[in-house]
Amino acid sequence: MVVCKFFLEGRCRFGVNCKNEHTQSRIGNTYQQQSFNQPVRQQYFPQQQKLRESQQQETNLESLLYVVKDDATNSMQGGQWLFSCYAPLLRKFSKISYNKNEENLPNLIDYSPEELKWEAMQSSMNGKFHDYTDKLQKLSQNYQTIQRALQNLDQATSNYIVRYERGETVSPAGTSLGNIASCFPAANTTSNSLSQFSFTLPHTQNPIQALNQQQQAAVAPFKFQLPSQQSAGASFSFHLPSQQTAAASFSFKLSPQQPQSLINTAVTNEPNATTRQIPVSAVPHITENISHHQLSQIDLEQFKADKFSFGKIPRVPPPIELR
Amino acid sequence: MFGSTGFGGSSFMGSNVVTAPTNHNPMKDFEVVSPPDESISCLEFSPASIPQNFLIAGSWDNHVRCWEIDQTGKSIPKSQETMQGPVLDVAWSDDGSKVFMAGCDKMAKCWDLNSNQSIQVAAHDAPIKTCHWIKSHNYSCLMTGSWDKTLKFWDLRQQSPILTINLPERCYCADVEYPVAVVSTASRHLIVYQLENTPSEAKRIESPLKYQHRCVSIFKDKKGMPTGFALGSIEGRVAIQYITPSNPKDNFTFKCHRSNGTNQQYQDIYAVNDIKFHPVHGTLATAGSDGRFSFWDKDSRTKLKTSEQMEQSITACCFNRDGQIFAYAVSYDWSKGHEFNNPQKKNYIFLHSCYEEMKPRQKS
């Protein structure tokens, strides 16, 4: 009997009534990753054919590298959250049962939106919002560089990933994944070496020194708009519930401000909620290029300097030459 | 002038420009009065042990608010409690008399609703991301997961935790359905704990997702025993994972909260901010950074419904005790950084009548 090819793909609509044979293939039905009523082409893992091939013979991980490329491209084009770890998971198609390398690629550390928001709030409370935006900009450059490397997959990067997924001891140094890594120890989730935020281990205070300064044309440029001059009278404030104009206002009995504490921990007194502000950039994003000549002298100096001076932050983006 | 709210201009995330809807309540749901001014991080309805429906919301403005929701969908503000930092998670005690809250002030507090008193019951070295109440036949305790890479269990009468478990990384999300707890951390770690007698690690599970985990929710089998969980990531994908699958085919992943960007070739990818299971039907709801929520049937592997798009992302959602009401919070989830934070934008909490919509599809 003819084996039903739709059944092998997990999508035969005749079921038991099918006139073709429904037998599991020798490897078993590997179509594990069904999508919700979505076409087959949107499977998570490589196509059935490649899957069966790679499991039948010694795995050719090189042929699966396109998955890494696609992941990086889709995430960059799709506006995905940038500060995430990444696990290529090519090893799942390898016959090697034990792989001492972590699933996650080194140098890509998770930062959740909540962590960054909390960091932003704290910096703002300490009057150091600039520091936060600077650090964040550097951090995002690092992640973007790595994502671009994964998109382009030059020979060195490809070799590294294949060997990494095979469980070999390899270092990303020398590849485009490694330019950032070279100043930090190899991936160790407890060291958080890439992070520069206060919530991580105290020794990671130095900003990245050996940053690859070349600004390759970014697919999605991370444009930071520095806080405006009006940060003093910030538009971002926490409203007290009493300012609500809703008809049904809260008739709450306020609990005592200092709750009894059973526990003798040193609780830092955070400033009153009403004074916490995060500066909101007032300059909307401008995409036009402004030539040298239209900039004021002060603006030009600012762009040429290493850091913006407070009070002299230009209101227009830098000209192309200075980017 | 304020930072871009998403109208025009590119963000660091790419050129996905979303035309914001002009209607703040496109689903025509009941609007909860006096919502928080800052982002809402967590929502929880009162448990089945009390007859009324109370809704608790924790917010980045340091407050935990309580409303009573009546039969007509009207919300009545009841009370409010304050922490010393943004609130990241809230939980109810099993008898519905106390509310636990935890957050960036590294503390967890227990708020007794009857007396309106609150006391500190937990402390960590870093913000507490998750808190869950565990009720066992021989013990009850509060489980807190923190960015200090520990999971602590607190008997409310004692100053020190009764148990501290080290996590491989910062705790990002957790869920408890006795006798199982699932915790997920940074770097895609997934740990299952069994809670009988004393909590202990039962299993480490290899994550089926490739990117940062964001939310997790345990589901139960027909007999009411916890059997698996749904896991959401920042990559617009959810994994349905059985703790001990009878068949590896039982585990699967699906994409969600994706949209066709202006660039047709690539989809916009949004994070899954929250996942909750319907208490009666066992179907699940996902809340996305794209400002939509969707209902899914994991057994027939079908999508039941997707909502209209809200003005901002949906940061939290929950079902009430009998599965009649689906509450969801519309506020900024920081998915595009500080540039897109617009404090002038109003936050909302909506109540959606969901019982019929969430009925499972017949398996074809």
From TrEMBL, chain A:
A zinc finger (C3H1-type) spans 1-25. GO terms for molecular function: zinc ion binding. Signal peptide: none annotated. Residues 129-156 form a coiled coil. It is found in: Nucleus membrane. It is a peripheral membrane protein. Its main location: nucleus. Residues 1-25 form the C3H1-type domain. One of its GO terms (cellular component) is nuclear membrane. Gene3D superfamilies: 2.30.30.1190. This is Nucleoporin NUP42. It comes from Daphnia sinensis. Keywords: Coiled coil, Metal-binding, Nucleus, Zinc, Zinc-finger. Pfam families: zf-CCCH_4.
From TrEMBL, chain B:
It is found in: Cytoplasm; Nucleus. Coiled coil: none annotated. It comes from Daphnia sinensis. GO terms for biological process: cell division. Gene3D superfamilies: YVTN repeat-like/Quinoprotein amine dehydrogenase. Pfam families: WD40 (PF00400). Keywords: Cell cycle, Cell division, Cytoplasm, Mitosis, Nucleus, Repeat, Transport, WD repeat. GO terms for cellular component: cytoplasm; nuclear envelope. Belongs to the WD repeat rae1 family. WD repeats lie at residues 80-121, 121-164, 272-306. This is mRNA export factor. It comes from the Eukaryota. Signal peptide: none annotated.
